[in-house]
Amino acid sequence: MADTFSERMIDLNNVSKTYQLRTGRKVILNGATISLPWRNTAVLGRNGAGKSTLLRLIAGIEEPNSGTTTRHKTISWPIGFRGSFHRELSGIENVRFVARIYGQNTEELIDKVESFAELGQFFYEPFKTYSSGMGARLAFGLSMAISFEVFLIDEVMAVGDEKFQRKSKSAFQERLPTSKVIMVSHSMPTLREYCQSGLVVHDGQLTYYEDLEEAIARYRKLNA
Amino acid sequence: MLRLATHLRVIFALVLREARVRHGRARIGYTWAIIEPVLMISILTFLFKQVGTGGANGRDFALFFATGVLSFQLYRNTSSYVSMSFDQNRPLFNYPMVKPLDTALARFVLDGSTHAAVITLVLCFQVFALGAPSPNNIPLMFLALLLLLLMAFGAGTSLAVVRRFMPSISNVYMVIMGPAFFVSCVFFSISTVPTLYRDILVWNPLVHGVEGFRTGYYHGYQDADVNLFYLFTWVVGLNFFGLVGEWLTRFRSV
Asked: In what helix (H) or strand (E) does residue A71 lie, and over which residues does it extend?
């Protein structure tokens, strides 16, 4: 069903993922095989179906229990993620660390994030002194500053005050010609705004729909 | 090749990050790394001078305790620091190129070089300022320390792996490492121990690291019971358990 003419984004080959819970094993994926084309893709599924886990498998943060994942594009961490920022390190030091692990030009990246996040002098202060809005701006600015070919978005898209939200949105629009998104959201308007295709997670299986509306229809049926 | 370059880049970035946060950015910071052993050596020297004797066999007390404390701390500090590397860096595993073993290696590099600097400083101070005898066989001292350091890495990763299932293992380790100070030849020499106890003590691999270090430092040190190969078997065993264990339990990494 996948569009065979476009470029590949990621392949999952017979991927299984389970979690050990106190009351038994929870199966998230059960031998899922899929090849996603490089398109804006919405991830749909009921609560607890494993949408976030799927994003983490795609990002390469988690290893499948069996099977393989192959990435053909550079893929971001779930954007807006800021758990990795060390409390004692300043914004600039936290950015420098990420620049180094991604092999980016450190000074260039720092300049980009500094001008985007608009933290002023706080950019040089420890992260623990940041308000939650400031932390979110730093995290979003950092995600946008690296030219990923695929951005992963888990629920949250809008951060900061209204002005920053507008800025984020336009920064994101600028990226869209060269980058695609894989997006988890329960808001259909948001998904329709950004995505053309859909991926439904249900019962340990993945089903790809080239047309988002078909995916939404299937998702509605699951919820009925 | 590309993957190796990525690992090296990540480890380098982690070393710099850990160096910034290691001591909670206290003003005193890295000076603590040198104050701790110096304080311990001073207290031991003072105590044993009061008693008048000890296991030092008439040697320069301060130097004897320095060789013991420095080599023992290299092992103890590095192993417990490495054992916490998966837990304390957990959020960083959200960056896919950061793997648990990278964080362990970064801590190994950072603590290894910190201790190497401290050991060099303290021993140089004793030789040049306090007139202690100069070391006899530096390569042998280096070998003993290297084996201790590698064993610390093996023990640290093994503990980190067990912590994935049983976090309380760290408490058990602390309980073991407390008395270890007294049975690892830190302030006495294995050759002064009565045979009955000596046969038990030589099972402790740290004895061979600490005494191996002294065998290198002192000319004509009694080394009949020191067996660096025995220490090496521990290095291999612990590293095997740690590395294979990490690989087998990597699904639990996050």
From this structure: strand A66-71
Express each pLDDT in A4-46 by its tens digit: 457 899 999 999 998 888 888 888 999 999 999 999 999 999 8
Which pair of structure tokens corresponds to residue A145? 């500053």
Test the B interface: residue of A10, A55, A95, A97 with most B CBs within 10 Å: A97
Listed in sequence order, the DSSP H helices in chain B are 2-21, 31-51, 61-83, 85-88, 100-128, 138-163, 169-180, 195-201, 205-217, 228-248
Give the phi and the psi of residue B200 in degrees, each rounded to 5.
-80, -45
* Chain A residue with Cα closest to B96: A61
Q: Specify which residues A126 forms β-bridges with.
A: A90
Among B197, B198, B202, which Cα is nearest to B230's? Answer: B202
Q: How far is CA A189 from CA A105, A192, A193, A200, A216, in A?
A: 37, 5, 6, 17, 11
8 Å CB contact of A100 and B253: no
The SS3 call for residue B180 is helix
Cβ distance of B9 and A100 shorter than 8 Å:
yes
pLDDT per residue over A84-119, tens digit each?
A: 899 889 999 999 999 999 999 999 999 999 998 889
**Pairing of β A24-37 and β A8-21:** antiparallel
> Three-class SS of residue B46?
helix
> Nearest 5 degrees, angle CA A49-CA A52-CA A53?
80
CA distance linking residue A97 with residue B15, whole number of Å: 10
Q: Residue A73: helix, strand or coil by DSSP?
A: coil
ipTM over 0.95: no
For the beta sheet containing A8-21, the strands, ordered from the edge strand earlier in sequence to the opposite edge, are A24-37, A8-21, A66-71
Q: What is the DSSP string of B195-231?
A: HHHHHHHTT-HHHHHHHHHHHHHSTT---TT--HHHH
